[in-house]
Design goal:
The protein is of the alpha+beta class and 597 residues long. Helices cover 26% and strands 33% of the residues. The chain starts with 5 loop residues before the first strand and ends with a helix. The structure holds guanosine-5'-triphosphate (GTP). Guanosine-5'-triphosphate binds at residues 13, 15-21, 53-55, 81, 132-133, 135-136, 163-165.
Length: 597
């Protein structure tokens, strides 16, 4: 295809502002999906995505569209909307020349609208502002068109009004994409350079790599090279999605499509990497490749220890389609054998645990999420601690650095007080407060990531009746007054309950866990002290009183079958007991204490 007839664009929007519905509508209007084949959210392929209405992996689709008798190829690149996947968002944006800025006409601009808009502007994309859901009775397009115009400049009348649901205005929007989005430019006879903006594992075809061609050409059966690793592969199939995969004779400048090389692991085809010809490689890779770093860590354990091999296999499988997932084996006194896993963020953690439960039928327990801390001891040795049990104990601690994020919170002005209170209690520092339009305020804070992973979002939602939206990005590290709190049963630390917390919150954490365990652990033959400690210093204490009664005492010796039943029951119970020192603890107690039930 002649690059002059190609338009590459994406839709950026806050969650629930209707991106998928609009994308589906475009597939219908351009005729590439017949109405009878239309199912809700055609592009969101993963079941979990469809159920939760969130987009996790991006997809690209090519649609024909005629303007003034000329046919154009519109490549729509779907982007994930959530902060956890901002690296994937930025790669998808880098594959486009334009972006539709989609805003719900009954809600106005939200935190992810802004975050994605800034990313789009950084990538020099042409922005097409659009108000969606104008069919809603609550829609106030006049008000929000002013809000958008104030934000990006321009005339409020220039903001298109559409409804993805009814299809109103969508044809005009496609025309505008052709008129406003610049055609791609590239050097046709240079060595090939194609950016990988997505890489998806398919159990039948192996890894499907989605690319945006910048320079040159890629042909079927050609050998290609990944520029970050120098690994070479043969292209078994090359084509475009419209939206089902359709093999082509190759891809040229500005085109968007997919490659299949037979590799089985997405790590061999990484998002952000540059693909080039192996015979005639380009000298410079396209800019912007980084390995996504996990920021949230948690231990994942099977509730039934015999499921451990199944869990290992399941993680191996998920890793094939998710280059950002990390894991290594870990053992815990309380929970047995499991894995310490690293995630991009909380949503990523939730998605993975949900998939493990659902697709692999596993019963799991996860330990409280933790962030990576840089701990330097008095002798100037620094370790990265992603698990409280790795916290250095021998030497004195010189300094602890914790990851910091810069957060943007948008909410109606009535909630400013509640938000400030919450951020303060989470050690936040306010950076700015701005009015966007008549009653919406943007608050900027820097906050420790460790405070955000601990139910911050739920608190924010409940304190603002669901009206606030949040977005954040990493902003380096800062020293924090952090300590490790251990929970001891009869003097022995129970690893799964150790936590790294701020000094001011250590006491609250210690008492809470000690009380929970006192309620959950059954009495033993002897008294069991439960203590919370920072190093050797005890900060809280509870105790479980000794038990006297013999289980068989109530049987009076008469009924032998009853006696046997009781003994058997006791034995069954024993199987799920964990020993901490001399203390016998049913695993359920640990699980309940961790899940806070
Ligand atoms: P993410 O994939 O999570 O980013 O969500 P999304 O932006 O793709 O939103 P989605 O298309 O799933 O729509 C969210 C909700 O808004 C759904 O309940 C849709 O039915 C509804 N919706 C989408 N477009 C319209 C519209 O034009 N009018 C009305 N009334 N409802 C709409």
């Amino acid at each position: 295809t002649d690059p002059a007839r190609i338009r590459n664009f994406c839709i950026i929007a806050h969650i629930d502002h209707g991106k998928s519905t609009l994308a589906d509508r475009m597939l219908g209007i351009t005729g590439i999906v017949a109405d009878r084949d239309m199912r809700a959210q055609y592009l969101d392929r993963m079941d979990i995505e469809r159920e939760r209405g969130i987009t996790i992996k991006s997809q690209a689709v090519r649609m024909p569209w005629q303007v003034d008798g000329e046919t154009f190829a519109l490549n729509m690149i779907d982007t994930p909307g959530h902060v956890d996947f901002s690296y994937e968002v930025s790669r998808s944006l880098a594959a486009c020349e334009g972006a539709i800025l989609l805003v719900d006409a009954a809600q106005g601009i939200e935190a992810q609208t802004l975050a994605n808009l800034y990313l789009a502007l950084e990538n020099d994309l042409e922005i097409i502002p659009v108000l969606n859901k104008i069919d809603l009775p609550a829609a106030d397009p006049e008000k929000y068109a002013r809000e958008i115009a104030q934000l990006i400049g321009g005339d409020p009348d220039d903001v298109l009004r559409v409804s993805g649901k009814t299809g109103m205005g969508v044809e005009d929007l496609l025309d505008r994409v052709v008129q406003r989005v610049p055609a791609p430019v590239g050097v046709a006879d240079a060595p090939a350079r194609a950016m990988i903006f997505d890489s998806v594992y398919d159990s039948y075809r192996g890894v499907v790599t989605y690319v945006r061609m910048v320079d040159g050409k890629l042909d079927p059966r050609e050998r290609i090279q990944m520029m970050s690793t120098k690994a070479t592969h043969e292209i078994l199939e090359i084509g475009v999605s419209s939206p089902e995969p359709k093999p082509t004779k190759g891809l040229g400048v500005g085109e968007v499509g997919y490659l299949i090389t037979g590799v089985k692991d997405v790590r061999q085809s990484k998002v952000g990497d540059t693909v080039t010809n192996s015979a005639k490689p380009a000298s410079d890779a396209l800019p912007g490749y980084t390995d996504p770093l996990p920021m949230v860590f948690s231990g994942i354990y099977p509730i039934d220890g015999s499921d451990y091999p199944v869990l290992r296999e399941a993680l191996d499988k998920l890793k094939l389609s998710d280059a950002a997932l990390q894991y290594e084996p870990e053992t815990s006194v309380a929970l047995g054998f499991g894995f310490r896993c690293g995630f991009l963020g909380l949503l990523h953690l939730e998605i993975i645990t949900e998939r493990l439960r659902r697709e692999f039928d596993l019963d799991l327990i996860t330990t409280a999420p933790s962030v990576p801390y840089e701990v330097t001891t008095e002798d100037r040795k620094t370790v990265t601690v992603t698990n409280p049990s790795e916290y250095p104990t021998g030497a004195k601690i010189h300094e602890v650095l914790e990851p910091i994020v810069s957060a943007s919170i948008l909410a109606p002005k009535d909630y400013v007080g509640a938000i400030m209170e919450l951020c303060q209690s989470r050690r936040g520092t306010m950076k700015s407060m701005d009015y966007l339009g008549e009653d919406r305020v943007e608050l900027k804070y820097t906050l420790p990531l460790g405070e955000i992973v601990f139910d911050f979002f739920d608190q924010l939602k409940s304190k603002t009746q669901g009206y606030a939206s949040l977005d954040y990005e990493p902003a380096g590290e800062a020293p924090g007054d952090l300590v490790k709190v251990d929970i001891l049963l009869q003097g022995e630390a129970v690893d799964a309950f150790s936590a790294i917390v701020h000094k001011d919150k250590a006491y609250a954490y210690g008492t809470m866990m000690a009380q929970r365990l006192r309620e959950l652990i059954p009495r033993q033959q002897f008294e069991v002290p439960i203590q919370a400690a920072i190093g050797a210093r005890i900060i809280a204490r509870e105790s479980i009183r000794a038990m006297r009664k013999d289980v068989l005492a109530k049987c009076y010796g008469g009924d032998i079958t009853r006696k046997r039943k009781l003994l058997e029951k006791q034995k069954e119970g024993k199987k799920r007991m964990k020993m901490v020192g001399r203390v016998e603890v049913p695993q359920e107690a640990f699980i309940a204490a961790l899940s806070g039930d």
